Amino acid sequence: MSSLLVTGSIALDTVETPSGKAENQLGGSATYFSLAGSILNPVRLVGVVGEDFPKEYTNLLAKSPIDLQGIEVRKGSKTFRWHGRYSEDMNNRTTISVALNVLGEHGPKIPDKFKDSQHIFLANSDPALQLEFLDQLTSPKLIVCDTMDLWIEHNRQNLLEVLQRVDGVVLNDSESRLLTGETNILTAAQIVCQLGPKFVVIKKGEHGAMLFSEGAIFLLPAYPTQKVVDPTGAGDSFAGGFMGYLASVDQTDFQAQAQALVYGTIIASFTVESFSLDAISKIKRQDVDRRRMDFLKMIGTTLNV
Amino acid sequence: MSSLLVTGSIALDTVETPSGKAENQLGGSATYFSLAGSILNPVRLVGVVGEDFPKEYTNLLAKSPIDLQGIEVRKGSKTFRWHGRYSEDMNNRTTISVALNVLGEHGPKIPDKFKDSQHIFLANSDPALQLEFLDQLTSPKLIVCDTMDLWIEHNRQNLLEVLQRVDGVVLNDSESRLLTGETNILTAAQIVCQLGPKFVVIKKGEHGAMLFSEGAIFLLPAYPTQKVVDPTGAGDSFAGGFMGYLASVDQTDFQAQAQALVYGTIIASFTVESFSLDAISKIKRQDVDRRRMDFLKMIGTTLNV
Q: Total structural domains in chain B?
């Protein structure tokens, strides 16, 4: 066990998928990350919500080993809201509306008691805020960040500065292409590593994930689930499982990263089986371990390699 | 070693990719399959070409352990021709022109000395011809077929009959969805198995392949190559490596199938590195084995699973 800190969005999501519609549900990158990560290691959550944030959602998060003292409830502000709709095959989504609200204001402060955190995940947010956040840390051991197309296109300079200061970055395949201008994923990953990070994890959704770390490569298919209800939060849950595992073993070498990729994959496979955090808030470590064993068989422990 | 027979197209291809253009090159499903498979096990090739088929291409095939006595050079006919163009990211291709020529006539006969073949691959062709072909076999041990969207949409009845008579089928993900009407790949694979085959291999191109075999699943990423010159023939080379391995070990159990998937993946990764058969006609078993060892590391032999 080691200290694991995340900062990112806490949201109220309205999501439409071929399975149905869920309104004003708990969402946000830091939320998914925290619930996912806390299955493996306690999580310190830093984020900001408005006065409208439902008490029941705070209670839900409090049931897991998540330290909520870093959640600021800002007076006179409203919680970030997102409304999205997925295509029939769930591979594309359209943002119907977004209200930044409190996320359009200044970022949250890290509580003094969190400043010594060793494992840090900067979930997707404005790289300018990510930099401010990094300045407050006293003893980071492993810093990993996420980002999105918006920042790659509109705040590239700050993002490049973030990349200089992190150990690793988690991107999806389209983001890695946008960041580097390279369509070949392997070349793109190599270029990302030249920008600063020692490793890069490329998420490919239903096609799995790839880890590029100081010259070594680890390739992992996705867990094949038959029940995809809502893909929202899969990437953040993946990151939560990834970082949660690394914090739990307090290791950062390639082998630990590869194992962490498996945990991220398995935990994300639960997330997509329900709307919002319904599935992931109910599972326990043993559920993850059971599915992980099934998955390890599927990826080749039956092979005499 | 065991006897391995393939039937399918032998073509003259003109291919345009972002890397350039190659005109009137040797192509066709049975050709790619044969060169790929013959790296692991001798191949008996059955197909038909026209009088225009260049002698140099016959010579090229003759350099590998491919028995060419099943190639009929039909008098007064012309070889099948295909002209295609790939998109910038190589994920889509457009057929610019196609001339069925000899493929629009009756199919080739299996030479008597090939009829006792044990491992059979029916590369993509009209399912009516695939059925005629099956009727000529005397002692098949493992029959696997391929198909395409054209037959799924326009000759479904014959295709369903073929599926009743084969042990396995190799499809790409879009074909499996078209055949079953299911978007979820796992559900689609289960439905395909209910149509007859004991196993189905789903090819996902740069995203790897999946094997579904009597309840068990094996998931494999693609080999990450930085040099994609021309994807033509990758699927047929994959099938050639898959069947070539199974014939070489003369086994058909799940473990052998999983290993065969790895060989198919590795051999296909060479195919895409050049136009036509340039790369695959030059590699030897040791090149395949070397890349295979690198690949096995990338998919998890570094994990303590």
A: 1
What pLDDT is attached to residue A181?
A: 94
Return the pLDDT at B303: 39
Classify residue A29: in a domain, yes or no: yes
B304 occurs within a structural domain:
no
CB contact under 8 A, A219 and B219: no
Provide the chain B residues 49-108 that lie in CB contact (below 8 A) with chain A: 88-89
Give the side-chain half-sphere CA count within 13 A for A110: 24
The amino acid occupying position B71 is I
Kind and range of the H or E element at A290? helix A285-296
* pLDDT reading at A218 higher than 50: yes
CA atoms within 13 A on the CB side of A148: 11
Tell me whether residues A89 and B259 touch, CB distance under 8 A.
no
Average pLDDT over residues A183-201: 95
Cα separation, B110 vs A14, whole angstroms = 61
Cα gap A287→A285, rounded to integer Å: 5
Q: Does any domain span residue A304?
A: no
Closest chain B C-alpha to A289 CA, distance in angstroms: 12
d(CA B305, CA B301): 8
The predicted model scores a pTM of: 0.93
Q: So what's the ipTM on this one?
A: 0.89
Nearest CA distance, A41 vs chain B (angstrom): 21
Phi, psi of B207 (to 5 degrees): -100, 5
Q: Exposure of B271 by Cβ count < 10 A (0-12 exposed, 13-18 middle, 19+ buried)? A: buried
- In chain A, residues with a C-beta closer than 8 Å to the C-beta of B256 are none
Would an 8 Å CB–CB cutoff place A214 in contact with chain B?
Answer: no
Letter for the amino acid at B155?
Answer: N
Range(s) of the domain holding residue A89: 4-299
With 90 as the cut, is the pLDDT of residue A282 above it?
yes
Among candidates B183, B224, B254 on the partner chain, residue whose Cβ is nearest the Cβ of A217: B224
Substitution target in B89, B218, B255, B294 with the highest count of A β-carbons within 10 Å is B218
Q: Chain A: residue nearest B215 by CA? A: A298
C-beta contacts of A57-66 below 8 A and 24+ residues apart? A57/A26, A60/A26, A60/A277, A60/A281, A61/A26, A61/A31, A61/A34, A61/A35, A63/A281, A64/A34, A64/A35, A64/A38, A64/A39, A64/A281, A65/A38, A66/A34, A66/A35, A66/A38, A66/A42
Does A131 reach chain B within 8 Å, measured CB to CB? Answer: no
Is-contact B263 B211, C-beta < 8 A? no
From residue B81, alpha-carbon distances to B11, B15, B22, B36, B281 in Å are: 6, 11, 13, 21, 21
A107-127 pLDDT per residue, tens: 889 999 999 999 999 999 899
| Closest alpha carbon within chain A to B257 | A303
Q: Which residue in the block uniquely carries the two structure tokens 């994990």?
A: B303
CATH number of the structural domain spanning residue B255: 3.40.1190.20
Tell me the chain A residues in contact with residue B88 when contact means C-beta distances shorter than 8 Å.
183
Q: Which residue has the tokens 């990450």?
A: B224
A220-267 confidence digits (pLDDT tens): 999 999 889 999 999 999 999 999 999 999 999 998 999 999 999 999
Q: CB–CB of A243/A37 below 8 Å?
A: yes
Q: How far apart are the first and last CA of chain B?
A: 32
